[in-house]
User: Fold this.
Amino acid sequence: MQTPKMLTIEQTAKMFGLPKNFIRQAVLDGRIVHVKAGKKHLINVQKVEEWLSTGDSSTTVSPSPQAPTGRIT
Assistant:
């Protein structure tokens, strides 16, 4: 199994040319596949590509096991 490419919210926003707040809100809403690593949320780039290309609500996922608290960076 290949390890997925994971980026921070800021890196993901820059890669796709989207505002950081858009990516951050999608993470908080559970629309983007991510894991929490310390204070950072790492986002699965391939899943974001699929989510953006389909625009399909079926790609919505549950939030990470740890509920986000405070400011997300």
The radius of gyration is 11 Å. Helices lie at 9-16, 20-29, 45-54.
